[in-house]
Task: inverse folding
């Protein structure tokens, strides 16, 4: 099996159940097929928070969506984000049969991002022991006189004696007879402890490390040395960056004036009140104090609707923030131009349509308003329009 | 069609909406800004950036020298926590997003070792008594907010 970016295709599928987030997928019911040329085929079944990953011989059957990668490099690269999925799709190295958009939103939601397994350090115990004299800190070890024996079994292991005396440190092969303390452990445990991946305390309590002699001395030894730094490890200490998040609350005041005062009075009574221009006879909804064409004051109000006809609609897919709350609005939604009954031609009223009616909505359709349970004379009284069947 | 009349003098149905708008906002303080705030927070130190060519030290930090446009983002120097007030303004406007209760003094403090002043809040001196040339020292916030206000204010030495 080919390896790219430090991982194989099988690794990605084997870790899938581990990376799966059941909570996020509890409403999902989908089977996704994967084909990676030269590597194999897999079927991933996600149903109500459960996941089943199986390798498939032969055809991928019963999958709503299938993903086909031209080679292992493309598949691994896109999974790790080393190759842009869009690039792979446009060059044809990656092909999706089914709902691409669904996949792009679903997969990041229900899976923890795959990361390549970290390479095991190639450092062995012998390497660490060989650096002991240069890591020695005479200032910390003044007046110390001890011999510490290491008996490290396994690959890269061996037997050494570290002699600390008169502010000097020496390493000798083999175990001296008059050791202050002797530590016996597998070489890999020693490496882990020195690299900080294994806690010395737990290694001791779990019996992986055996001590003979002065236990206090064993605990003290680490003080006499600078920490061992793995020369193979990347210096990848993440830089801390600060982002300040605040939610500002802005006070707003809006005075209705006479015309809008009438409009809200109408909403309270579940009526659409428009005002009429005394000169051109045009109805204005929502009402304005002055006719926008004739520039004369409009004092007469008439009731329009309540039913109307859709004359145009804007379906919005852009997730814009709601100006009243700052929260992102659910998409898609539609702003419809509704010509209420008795309104002058061209004088349509713009408002939301019920989300469920979006697919059936069309120009010319008849609609009726849906009001809040309790109308208070405010802009939340009118909920939306729905198709008048 | 029934009509009704509402003249402009008729305020029966007029009223005022009182609203609150929430504006969620995030501000990335930048790589240099982060280092500057982290030094305030963890080391209680004010750091500046020095141009090796012009020998000018800038605070708050900036990526390029103001005079010769040399990139100076790595050349951090530690500044003193004391400085001289070179300019000030008294904030009296009651803005609800201001960090302190008004009236307060917003001063420009030229720190020891810096060539540009740092703008910050001055406390511990009456508005009537504040003078240009005063010696001030930094007072750090006991609790971090991960903002510029980890340096809480300046006060007279």
Result:
């Amino acid at each position: 099996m080919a390896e790219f970016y430090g991982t194989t295709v099988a690794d990605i599928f084997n870790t899938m159940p581990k990376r799966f987030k059941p909570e996020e997928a509890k409403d999902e019911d989908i089977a996704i097929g994967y084909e990676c040329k030269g590597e194999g085929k897999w079927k991933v079944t996600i149903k109500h928070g459960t996941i089943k990953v199986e390798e498939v011989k032969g055809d991928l059957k019963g999958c709503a969506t299938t993903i086909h990668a031209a080679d292992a490099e493309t598949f691994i690269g896109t999974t790790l984000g080393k190759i842009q999925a869009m690039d792979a799709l446009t060059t044809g190295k990656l092909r999706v049969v089914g709902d691409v958009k669904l996949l792009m939103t679903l997969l990041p939601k229900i899976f923890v991002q795959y990361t390549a397994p970290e390479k095991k350090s190639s450092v062995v115990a012998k390497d660490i022991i060989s650096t002991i004299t240069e890591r020695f800190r005479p200032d910390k070890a003044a007046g110390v006189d001890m011999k510490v024996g290491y008996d490290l079994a396994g690959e890269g292991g061996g037997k050494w004696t570290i002699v600390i005396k008169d502010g000097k440190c020496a390493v000798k092969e083999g175990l001296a007879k008059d050791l202050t303390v002797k530590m016996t452990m597998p070489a890999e445990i020693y490496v882990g402890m020195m690299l900080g991946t294994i806690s010395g305390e737990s290694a001791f309590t779990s019996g992986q490390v055996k001590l003979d002699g002065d236990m206090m001395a064993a605990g003290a030894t680490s003080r006499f040395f600078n920490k061992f730094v793995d020369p193979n490890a990347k210096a990848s200490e993440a830089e801390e960056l600060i982002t300040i998040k605040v939610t500002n609350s802005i006070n707003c005041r809006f005075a209705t004036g006479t015309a809008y005062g009438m409009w809200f009075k109408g909403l309270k009574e579940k009526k659409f009140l428009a005002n009429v221009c005394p000169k051109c006879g045009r109805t204005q909804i929502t009402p304005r104090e002055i006719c926008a064409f004739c520039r004369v004051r409009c004092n007469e109000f008439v009731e329009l609707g309540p039913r109307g006809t859709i004359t145009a609609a804007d379906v919005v897919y852009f997730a814009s923030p709601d100006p009243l709350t700052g929260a992102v609005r659910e998409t898609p939604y539609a702003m419809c131009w509704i010509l209420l009954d008795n309104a002058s031609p061209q004088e349509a009223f713009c408002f939301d349509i019920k989300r469920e009616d979006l697919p059936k909505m069309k120009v010319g359709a008849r609609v009726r308003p849906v009001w809040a349970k309790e109308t208070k004379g405010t802009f939340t009284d009118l909920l939306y329009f729905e198709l008048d069947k | 069609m029934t009509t009704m009349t509402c003249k402009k003098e008729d305020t029966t149905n007029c009223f005022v909406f009182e609203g609150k708008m929430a504006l969620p906002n995030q501000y990335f303080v930048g790589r240099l800004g982060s280092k500057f705030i982290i030094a305030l927070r963890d080391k209680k130190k004010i750091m500046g950036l020095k141009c090796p060519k012009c020998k000018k030290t800038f605070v708050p930090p900036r990526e390029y020298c103001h005079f010769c446009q040399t990139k100076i983002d790595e050349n951090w120097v530690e500044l003193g926590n004391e400085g001289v007030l070179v300019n000030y303004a008294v904030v009296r406007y009651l803005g609800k997003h201001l960090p302190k209760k008004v009236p307060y003094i917003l001063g420009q403090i030229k720190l020891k070792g810096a060539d540009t002043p740092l703008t910050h809040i001055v406390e511990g001196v009456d508005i009537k008594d504040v003078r240009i040339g005063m010696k001030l020292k930094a007072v750090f916030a006991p609790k971090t907010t991960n903002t510029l206000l980890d340096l809480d204010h300046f006060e007279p030495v």
Summary: The longest strand of chain B covers residues 16-28. The interface with chain A takes residues 1-8, 10-29, 31, 33-34, 37-38, 96-97, 146-147 of chain B (CB under 8 Å). Strands of chain B lie at 3-5, 16-28, 46-50, 57-58, 76-79, 82-91, 104-111, 118-122, 135-140, 151-156. The radius of gyration of chain B is 23 Å.
